[in-house]
Amino acid sequence: MASLKVADLFSGVGGLSQGFISKGFEVAFAIEYDKEISKSYELNHPNTSVINEDIREINLERLKDSYGKIDVIVGGPPCQGFSQKGKRLSINDQRNYLFKRFIDAVDIFRPKYFVLENVPNILSTANGFFKEQIIQGFNELGYTVNAETLNASDFGVPQNRRRAFFLGSMDGTMLPFPSPNNQVTTIKEAIYDLPFIESGEGHQYFDYEKPATSVYQKIMRSGSEGIFNHISTKHSEIALQRLSLIPKGKGKEVLPEEHRTKSIYSGTWSRLDEDGIAATITTRFDTPSSGLFTHPILNRCLTVREAARIQSFPDRFLFYGTKSSQMKQVGNAVPPMLAAEIANIIHLNENK
């Protein structure tokens, strides 16, 4: 059977795409507005046509003429109007126009399936008002929609990352969401085979120095002869002094008063638990004051490669561009391993 064709409308570096590709899908085209990130996507997906444009300016009808039949549309459009304040804004609110473009694309391409990803509170804000509006919007196009929040940690990803998904089908089937597979991956199992470098150290490329000691490490290494993007941020002297005072398994609560900071972020100046999972990886994981990103035993924060491992990107996936862009690419992505679970649901429905 020919592989199903996917379009990734808000691709980022390609976490959703990567998950679908791993299950045998073919990504025909991806749209990404950020120039550096779209270049990184392109270099990792040579068989996909990458469109580096603002989706608001793209003629979707012409796009359909160019690419023809698309079986699955995926993406995570930003929805600024879906605030936690619970104000009753319409999906037609100007701030949610990017979301409306996703619906427009589904209307024009008429894919068999779609996967829309977003923040968890899109399902609960205003007593589910937005959730119902979104489902109604797709129902009016003839799609049956299921919506649920999934946590990546339930599917072997070493991270507490919750995301909302709307899963739609054209054939009238209410597609189920994947059930947790009871695979738990710890930080130690995810990154301890990587070179133990100190603050300010690292190289663009390392050969594997240690053998893989966990199933997860073996999966991450598949198809790669070494690792890229493993360079540690050079922390300031005061930051290094502060980190040296924090023992394994502890956080800022052990710091003397003069080292207590007023950072508002959860997990700041605290070490990751090597036998636990990470908090949500964000776009500033190189800074101890931005969240729970300090290495379990080394006096530094995570490297791009370590964060990518925690996001379940395989080692053969490289991140290009400036360091801040690489962190944005990793931090904003859907974990590929989670995306693969959703792709598998569609695959199973196709083959029933």
TrEMBL record:
Signal sequence, start to end: none
Any Pfam family the entry gives: DNA_methylase
Organism superkingdom: Bacteria
Any GO MF annotation of the entry: DNA (cytosine-5-)-methyltransferase activity
Record's keyword terms, sorted: Methyltransferase, Restriction system, S-adenosyl-L-methionine, Transferase
Catalytic activity annotation: a 2'-deoxycytidine in DNA + S-adenosyl-L-methionine = a 5-methyl-2'-deoxycytidine in DNA + S-adenosyl-L-homocysteine + H(+)
Catalytic activity, EC: 2.1.1.37
Keyword field contains ATP-binding: no
Any GO BP: DNA restriction-modification system
Recorded coiled-coil stretches: none
Gene3D superfamilies: DNA Methylase, subunit A, domain 2, Vaccinia Virus protein VP39
Entry annotation: catalytic residues: C79
Family: Belongs to the class I-like SAM-binding methyltransferase superfamily. C5-methyltransferase family.
Protein name from the UniProt record: Cytosine-specific methyltransferase
Lineage: Bacteria, Pseudomonadati, Bacteroidota, Flavobacteriia, Flavobacteriales
